[in-house]
């Protein structure tokens, strides 16, 4: 370790936030982080991945140490667009401090957590003067808020092909609904999207026997899907749920039945199910309805992500104890919320998520408490100390 001047976590957060890194543009954010990490002693690899249908994405993998175990911090420096600039009380990329709060896009989700990764690493390494076993690494993507094609997933594949193995991972997504220390995530539900199209024959409504209206068929299929009992939940997961997101016919005429009717639905599901199992279950249900009605349908699916659960073992207990030590509260171990890049990391090692309060993420005037940032850096440091000792 060569960089002995203590990092200021607020200043580093502000430096990252002042880079307008709206997905997929990095806007210099990874340069800021890489410069800091290299001064600490990390070896950094910049990884740019592309896809025929998506823009290039810049990513960073940094590691200090060569031995095992390898503790990895994972996160992202890309942010969602700020939206209506006139609705903000500050410039969303000026990183303004007001009344003890840090305002700006990426404050909660999740540039402050990325800064805390670096600060905690420096504090831990400095405490042991380089006499430590194992390795610390950071996996930072610029594609979490976008398609998530050229980011974490491809970095993990690159790591495997280059002999990089991680033993445990902490993702810095905002996990607390209202106050820091309320909860950390030990799992996430899976996501399955279905695009249902029912075909018929258009015709004049006065002559229904000469047509086949697909709308009643679609309604029957939607009713069967809506009434499908998935499960009652489990010890760590809420019940799985299916929600329709759109129904489309596109028929502007009042005297013509359409040829096609469409509906889109998404299922958030727990570890009782799998993507392939849901696919089979849904197709069996729709086949039954279609057979009884003499209907024709097509189902296209996106198997977005499998659910995962990191058990209540030493790693999750360490995270919980570290949070309680600094904040005086025992956090809930939760699996609520949407998806994150942990859905890729769980295929490589146990992973948990803990970050700041997410109440204002993706909103106008996104902001976090300065004291919470300081506390998060302290908690991450304690987790590293406990992990390696």
Verbal overview:
With 389 residues, the protein is an alpha+beta fold. It folds into two domains: 9-188 and 307-388, Zn peptidases (Aminopeptidase, 3-Layer(aba) Sandwich), CATH 3.40.630.10; 190-305, Alpha-Beta Plaits, CATH 3.30.70. It has nine helices and 19 strands. The chain has helices spanning 9-17, 29-40, 107-127, 152-161, 214-226, 275-293, 314-327, 342-345, 370-388, and strands at residues 43-51, 54-64, 70-76, 96-98, 101-103, 135-141, 168-171, 183-185, 187-188, 190-199, 203-204, 241-248, 256-257, 260-269, 296-305, 308-309, 332-334, 351-353, 367-369. The strands form six sheets. The protein has a six-stranded mixed sheet with strand order 1-2-6-3-7-18, sandwiched between helices. Helix 5 (214-226) packs across helix 6 (275-293). The model has no long low-confidence stretch (mean pLDDT 95).
Strand and helix map with partners:
Blueprint: H1 9-17, H2 29-40, E1 43-51, E2 54-64, E3 70-76, E4 96-98, E5 101-103, H3 107-127, E6 135-141, H4 152-161, E7 168-171, E8 183-185, E9 187-188, E10 190-199, E11 203-204, H5 214-226, E12 241-248, E13 256-257, E14 260-269, H6 275-293, E15 296-305, E16 308-309, H7 314-327, E17 332-334, H8 342-345, E18 351-353, E19 367-369, H9 370-388
Helix pairs in contact: 1-2, 1-3, 2-3, 3-9, 5-6, 7-9
